[in-house]
Every structure is written in structure tokens, then in C-alpha cells.
Write a structure and sequence with these properties.
With 335 residues, the protein is α/β, with parallel strands linked by helices. It folds into two domains: 244 residues, Aldolase class I (TIM Barrel, Alpha-Beta Barrel), CATH 3.20.20; 65 residues, Four Helix Bundle (Hemerythrin (Met), subunit A), CATH 1.20.120. The protein is built from 19 helices and eight strands. Strand 3, helix 5 and strand 4 form a beta-alpha-beta unit. The chain is globular.
């Protein structure tokens, strides 16, 4: 039987070089309910390389996590899904949205918006493989179009093709991607957002779960998008830059959970045990605490906190005492 569907009312987007397992551990400590994504993992590397290393994660620390795969060969993607099925991920997502040259060179990511038939074949193969292994749901993350495409024409047709192939949930980055002439950073900022197009696509497809992504930087913006009718909201870099501001109140505000909001300082102190575990396993402190740099954004002493971590965490033998010194640099929160 396919695993239960995860909640996607709020999720943190998959981001290369950012949403690694240390980031996810921090984010999970701030929100019990948000769905977290891995960085994109190349399907061929899973099949032909060290799958155990590429797919490693800590369910007891990370909670519900979705694996994002990149690829364009149905057979390879299906085999990657079969391998991943035993790792306990809540979802496997196909990347049809990344515009980087590196991804295009592998013939996957946003360039696949031009090949809806190939994408449909990929997801159909993935769905079959997951069902055979009792694995998780297969989903897609896409753009509204690329280059000269007309999103008003391309997106509805693309979603219909996915739905016909058996996909029930799609995250849509509400910007067109320009594959030539714009950097990945510019592709996150310069093409105009078209939330109305994504919202109209959802209204026309009540049986398809559609998650809105792109330019959503706060819980206020997330709540507003949900009120306009999409099924979920995916937040990207804002969750990295200000994890406390985005996630600490998410369970209450987005999911209606009872209880108090997460306390970022308490979260950091609770994770000192995790830091010690990872150091004992051979990890370096600066890699563990890199996602913590924005944890106290807006609080007095946050700059000093960041400085201590940035300057001292790379030193040979650096350990939890560095985190303690960084936390001591914070000014107390007024009662």
C-alpha cells in the first residue's frame, strides 16, 4: 500500500546547497507539521552510485521529509524510486523547475517544461515503481513555463498531462524560467510572479492538489495565498534567511495546532545534543550550524551570534562550546 499522504499546507522548498539534513533538523525543531524537502538528488547517481550516502537522513530528527529527484529517463527514475522506497521518505518529487545550466546539461529541471510527454512517461514509471514497493506518493515541482512559452497555455496543458499520468499533487513556482540569459538567482527574482494563473489552475482542477511557490516570504503571505484557494504554500529562501520568523509560529497559524510557538533559543539549546552526535560521527561544526545563522533575525545580538558562529565554527576541534558562546551574545528578550 502506498504510504499516507503528507500534509502540504506548508512546506520548505528543496534548495541545492541549503536544505541538507542539518537544515532540516533545525526546521523540524521549529515546526512539527511543515513538510521538508531534501536538496535535489540526481536519479542516475542513486542508481549507479552510493545510494546509502545520497539518501541518508534521520527520521527521528527530521520527521516528514520528501525526497526530490532530478532526471529525465523513465527507467532510471523508476529504479531510483525503487531504491528510495526503503528509506521512509514521505514523498518523492520530480524536479521540473530548476533553471541552472548544470541541471539543463543533464536534460532535467525546468527545460522539461518543453517535453510534457517525457515528463508524463517519467512520472508514470515512478508511480508504478513506488506502488510496487509500497513506497510514497510521486509528485512534481514545476514552473509556469520557460522562455518563449505562454504560461496561460502551457501550465494548464502541463497539469492536465500530469494528472492523466496519475499525479495528484504539484508544486508550481509561479514564475516563468528563462533558460538562457538569466542566472538561477535572477530566475528567482526577475520574471514576474503570476499567482492568479496558478490559482485559476487550481480552481479548474478541484481534484488536484496544487501548492503555490515563489516569492512567499512570510506566514502572512502564506495565509493570504491559502485564503485565495490553493491547497498549500511552499516557502523557499525566507525559511533559510529567517527560520524562526517563518517556522516558529507555523504550526499554530497554518495548521491550527494548539500550544505555544517554538522558541528559537530553546530550539538551539535542545539541538546541542544533535551537534555532539554529529561531531562524534565525524561531521564539522561549521556544516552543522550553517543553517542556524539566520535563526535570530531581527533580535538584538543576532549579528554577534552570527559572527561567533561564522568565525569560530571552522576552527579545528570546534564544538558545542562555540554555540554556547554565540548564544551568550544574544541580548535577553524583553518580557
Amino acid at each position: 500500500m502506498i504510504a499516507d499522504r503528507p500534509e502540504r499546507r506548508l512546506s520548505v522548498a528543496p534548495m541545492m546547497d541549503w536544505t541538507d539534513r542539518h537544515c532540516r533538523v533545525l526546521h523540524r525543531r521549529l515546526s512539527r507539521r511543515a513538510l521538508l524537502y531534501t536538496e535535489m538528488v540526481v536519479a542516475s547517481a542513486v542508481v549507479r552510485g552510493d545510494a546509502a550516502r545520497l539518501l541518508r537522513w534521520r527520521p527521528e530528527r527530521e520527521g516528514a521529509v520528501a525526497l526530490q529527484l532530478g532526471g529525465s529517463d523513465p527507467a532510471v527514475l523508476a529504479e531510483a524510486v525503487r531504491i528510495a522506497a526503503g528509506f521512509g521518505y514521505a514523498e518523492v518529487n520530480l524536479n521540473v523547475g530548476c533553471p541552472s545550466d548544470r541541471v539543463q546539461g543533464g536534460r532535467f529541471g525546468a527545460c522539461l517544461m518543453r517535453e510534457p510527454e517525457r515528463v508524463a512517461a517519467c512520472v508514470a514509471a515512478m508511480i508504478g515503481a513506488s506502488a510496487a514497493e509500497g513506497g510514497p506518493e510521486i509528485t512534481v515541482k514545476c514552473r509556469i513555463g520557460v522562455d518563449e512559452q505562454d504560461p496561460a497555455v502551457v501550465l494548464p496543458a502541463f497539469l492536465d498531462r500530469l494528472q492523466g499520468a496519475g499525479v495528484r499533487s504539484v508544486a508550481v513556482h509561479a514564475r516563468k524560467a528563462w533558460l538562457q540569459g538569466l542566472s538561477p538567482k535572477e530566475n528567482r527574482e526577475r520574471p514576474p510572479l503570476d499567482y492568479a494563473l496558478v490559482e485559476a489552475a487550481k480552481a479548474a482542477r478541484p481534484g488536484m492538489e496544487i501548492v503555490l511557490n515563489g516569492g512567499i516570504g512570510s506566514l502572512d503571505a502564506a495565509e493570504a495565498a491559502l485564503a485565495r484557494g490553493v491547497d498549500g504554500v511552499m516557502i523557499g529562501r525566507a525559511a533559510w534567511n529567517d527560520p524562526g520568523g517563518v517556522l516558529a509560529a507555523a504550526d499554530r497559524r497554518i495548521f491550527g495546532a494548539a500550544g505555544s510557538d517554538a522558541d528559537p533559543e530553546a530550539a538551539a539549546r535542545d539541538l546541542l545534543g544533535y551537534v555532539e552526535e554529529e561531531l562524534a560521527a565525524g561531521e564539522r561544526l561549521h556544516r552543522i550550524v550553517k543553517p542556524w545563522l539566520g535563526l535570530f533575525a531581527g533580535r538584538r545580538g543576532a549579528r554577534a551570534f552570527r559572527r561567533v558562529l561564522s568565525e569560530e565554527a571552522r576552527a579545528p576541534g570546534a564544538g558545542p562550546e562555540v554555540v554556547e558562546r554565540a548564544l551568550a551574545a544574544l541580548e535577553p528578550v524583553a518580557a
